[in-house]
Amino acid sequence: MKHEILESIKLAGDVKKLNKEQLEGLCAELRDEIIEKVSETGGHLASNLGAVELTVALHYVFDSPNEPIIWDVGHQCYSHKILTGRDITGIRTEGGLSGFPKSSESEHDLFVAGHASTSISAALGIAEAKKISGDGNSVVAMVGDGACSGGMIYEALNNAGRSGTNLVVVLNDNEMSISPNVGAMAKYLANIRSKEGYFRFKDKMEHFLLGIPAIGKGIFNILRHIKTFFKDYFYSSNTFEHFGFTYLGPVDGHDIQMLIRTLHRAQSIKRPVLVHINTVKGKGYGPAEKNPSKFHGVAPFDKETGELKKESGDSFSSAFGRTICRLAEKDDKICAITAAMADGTGLREFSERFRDRFFDVGIAEEHAMTFAAGLSAGGMKPVFAVYSTFLQRVYDQILHDASIEPKHVVIGIDRAGIVGGDGETHQGTFDIPILTTIPGTTIYCPSDYAELEKDLEAAFDSEGVQAVRYPRDCEKAVPEKFTAEYGDFDYFEGNSDCLIVAYGRLFIEAAFAANETGASVLKIGKVFPLEHKLIEIAKKYKNIFFFEESVEFGSIAEHFGNELSKSGFDGNYKIHCVSGFVPHMKVENAMKKHGLDRESMINAVKETLK
């Protein structure tokens, strides 16, 4: 389909040249472009479709990058990328655009975003920097209502409301999860308050009253308090104003003219403003409107029917969910916690079957961890299911609240290791170094579903912090002679002086590599703390290769090498780990790039044997 209006947009400022009809046409073309491209590569669809008019209005009113737009998470930024001259063909694939804001892509992405609740803090910092340097331009923080379940948002609001900066916070409320439902009177008043005539009258009246000698200021204050009383009565919106923000809204997020008027007003106020926008997730695409959760982060799909081109099938996440349900049937003290990821972590069935023992705390990982420690202190057996990348947020809570005075908490670490299309902000390559610094922590890394079940059973039967980490993947078969018995480790002796050490899904790669080279394999199941017997087995070999989906510093490979050195090992020890941040690409390509695939393992062993 030809997109005539969209093709006329070469620079972000070109949006300002469009008339009312063209703006509405642009929104339709943007939706069509996003659906077309995301259906091919997968990505975040429903949230992007819901923010189309809002994004167009932001670029119509504000002058990006001079007035930067700081995105929260970035699930809503595809229209922004297109309007700032970027082609989203191949988004989230190697060589294509990131699915999130990325400053190396464009000057219009001033701040990277992949985790929730960060935008207001970042935008406030930028606004304060502008204020210090005498730059009077606004800074916009674009935040979704879901991110407002994270405490960092309120820390930022508390700081920003008294800052005196030209900060505009745009709250994209697409599920009414913060504010109560708004009635007809409130919508009517919002419409009146969004008209230019209202703002002109309001400004002139303020100027007139404050100009009356002696009594003008008093009259102005009385009228302001009366207005605030009635506004609070109709809107119940005084929370943001108590933080020090001027509140505008709620505004229909799909009425582009009202959006433009309201954002112009916010831009003119020159102090912290919060604009409350109501939108519909998946707007304009039937399947996404009916099932926004399914189309939040979606694999490639048929855009005509909305059906996935390839069903996701079974996974470690679903195996985790099944196991937790099975264990909870036998033990009524087992509770499950998620931070707004019931579907992603496989806990949907648990949430339906054990409602009194299921807790979705919203995007509040720090709270989730301390809450889990509290459940443990109360005699329960909590499991906190969390993506590896979001576990990074709870280091202090694990250390301070769950470990100093040990609490029995099980952490199910989903998406451990390399994850693929989400890129740098979501790779699960830092949880091992984080956890190995905390005394008393036990870490399991299963290579298949049966071992995952065994590890979870062991974790619930133990004490202290018990972490079970597993990849965003399904289980894979290994050569028959490498069938594991699921002890704390499994040892498969070969016919050379080379030993491959691995755990998790890399054990499968190691098994195939050993099958071809004759190397021995040491598969670790309980990876931390390390069993002394592992070192005794390994030190018999002249050449040891450790392969791990983790950054090296603090990795199991590093700990293993230190123990080898202490034991007097004088052979060759080579660590193959992840180097730095891993950009978005297919998992298999990232594995190859970092030397973690079976071909790389085979080459490493053969090169040594030469």
Describe this structure in words.
By secondary structure, this protein is of the alpha/beta class. The protein has 3 domains: 4-179 and 237-298, Rossmann fold; 316-469, Rossmann fold (3-Layer(aba) Sandwich), CATH 3.40.50.970; 489-609, Rossmann fold (3-Layer(aba) Sandwich). 42% of the residues lie in helices and 16% in strands. It contains 25 helices and 19 strands. Strands 9-8-10-11-13-12-17 form a 7-stranded mixed sheet, with helices on both faces. α6 (119-133) runs parallel beside α7 and α9 (196-210) packs antiparallel against α10. The radius of gyration is 27 Å and the shape is elongated. The termini are far apart. Mean pLDDT is 90; it is low at 176-190.
Structure described in brief:
The chain is α/β, with parallel strands linked by helices. The chain is built from 25 helices and 19 strands.
Could you say what the CATH architecture of the largest domain is? 3-Layer(aba) Sandwich
Number-wise, the strands total: 19
Rg, rounded, reads 27 Å
N-end to C-end Cα span: 58 Å
What fraction, in percent, of the residue positions are helical?
A: 40-55%
Q: Figure out the total of helices.
A: 25
Beta-strand percentage range: 15-25%
Q: Remind me, CATH topology of the largest domain?
A: Rossmann fold
What is the molecular shape? elongated
What structural category arises from helix and sheet content? alpha/beta
Q: Which strand order does the major sheet show? A: 9-8-10-11-13-12-17
CATH superfamily descriptor of the largest domain: Thiamin diphosphate (ThDP)-binding fold, Pyr/PP domains
Mean pLDDT: 90
Q: Which runs of at least 5 residues are low in confidence (pLDDT < 50)?
A: 176-190
* Major beta sheet summary: 7 strands, mixed
CATH class (first level) name of the largest domain? Alpha Beta
Query: How many structural domains can be distinguished in the coordinates?
Result: 3
